[in-house]
Every structure is written in structure tokens, then in C-alpha cells.
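Figure 6 in text form: structure in, sequence out.
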């Protein structure tokens, strides 16, 4: 008879992923061991293997869930009501809402994707492409003329994403501006340019 899952099975798996993200981001995936992760979870290795069959499976799930969350947020912004600029602001705010608490996961996505086998890495890259394509769609709503300049679509999109994708390095919740204020600032700079900003009126 199959072993019955505990009611908090999903919550425990999520806790493992969060602890693993902190460990992998701090030490690097290749230098982190299952024993260290078990210790971080105050558990045994056998307990850990009840939830995940391998360290690789944990790494994959960290990335998959992180990028899937970004995709859901991007698609929600795209499907929202309002003007293209309002949708774009929603997108930036949605992404920042994730990034302020997911620095470790973002580090892993940037640094350790190559540790996955080819087929799993391809799945993660496909999810990332879907996120980028959703942002491209929003940018085309903002500037339909860009539809005729296909060579510029991804560079323009990545220029915007570059403004917020690296916030995990320096942004702090207790800093001078909050996450929504920074998201709005990024949108204004991207759409209207730095020289058009009037900080005193914000």
C-alpha cells in the first residue's frame, strides 16, 4: 500500500525549496550537499528523500516554480484591463513583488541553470522565453510601430527587464523607496526617459 501523504506535504516541500535556495545561492549548487540541506531543514537525509528523489530534482523545482510565478504574473498583467501603460506598470509591480523575496531563487536561475540535464534545462528556458514573449506583447501594445522592427523587439524588451532583473543585488525593503515606487520609476524611465523625470513631484 502506498504511503499516505501528510496534509502539509506541499508546505514541507516548499520549505525544502526555500532552504535549498538559500543554501545553493550562498554556496553554489555544486558545492552544496544533501547533508547540509537536511541540516538546514532540521531533518535527516531519509526524510528529505521522502519529498525529493535527488538534489537535482530540488534545483529543477526551484527554477520551475520561480519562472512559472513570473509567467503567471506577466500573463495576468497582459490580460488586465486598462491602458497599455497601466498594464505595463502592473507588470513591473508584479515582477518586483516577486523579486523582493526571491533573491536566492534568482541567483540560482542565473548561475546554476547549466547544472540541469539538457531536457530539464530546455524546459526552464522555454518557460523563460514565454515570460519574455509576454513582455514583448505588452511592449508592442505600448508601441505598435515596433511590430515592423522585429530585430529590435527582444533588445528593447531585455533593456527593460534588465532594469528590474538585477534589483536582487541592491534593492532593500527598508530602503528609501518601496517596491511599487521603484517599479513605477522603472516604467517612467523606460517609457519617457530619465531627463523627463521630475522627482520632486513624485
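Output sequence:
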Amino acid at each position: 500500500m502506498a504511503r499516505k501523504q501528510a496534509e502539509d506535504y506541499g508546505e514541507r516541500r516548499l520549505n525544502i525549496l526555500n532552504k535549498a535556495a538559500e543554501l545553493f545561492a550562498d554556496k553554489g549548487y555544486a558545492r552544496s550537499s544533501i547533508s547540509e540541506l537536511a541540516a538546514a531543514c532540521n531533518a535527516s537525509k531519509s526524510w528529505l528523500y521522502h519529498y525529493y528523489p535527488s538534489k537535482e530534482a530540488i534545483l529543477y523545482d526551484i527554477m520551475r516554480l520561480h519562472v512559472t510565478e513570473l509567467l503567471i504574473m506577466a500573463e495576468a498583467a497582459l490580460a488586465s484591463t486598462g491602458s497599455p501603460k497601466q498594464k505595463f506598470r502592473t507588470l513591473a509591480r508584479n515582477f518586483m513583488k516577486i523579486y523582493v523575496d526571491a533573491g536566492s531563487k534568482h541567483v540560482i536561475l542565473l548561475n546554476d541553470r547549466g547544472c540541469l540535464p539538457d531536457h530539464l534545462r530546455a524546459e526552464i528556458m522555454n518557460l523563460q522565453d514565454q515570460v519574455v514573449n509576454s513582455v514583448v506583447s505588452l511592449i508592442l501594445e505600448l508601441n505598435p510601430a515596433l511590430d515592423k522592427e522585429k530585430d529590435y523587439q527582444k533588445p528593447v524588451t531585455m533593456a527593460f527587464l534588465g532594469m528590474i532583473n538585477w534589483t536582487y543585488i541592491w534593492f532593500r525593503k527598508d530602503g528609501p523607496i518601496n517596491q511599487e515606487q521603484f517599479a513605477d520609476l522603472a516604467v517612467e524611465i523606460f517609457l519617457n526617459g530619465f531627463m523627463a523625470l521630475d522627482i520632486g513631484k513624485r
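Caption detail: The mean pLDDT is 91.
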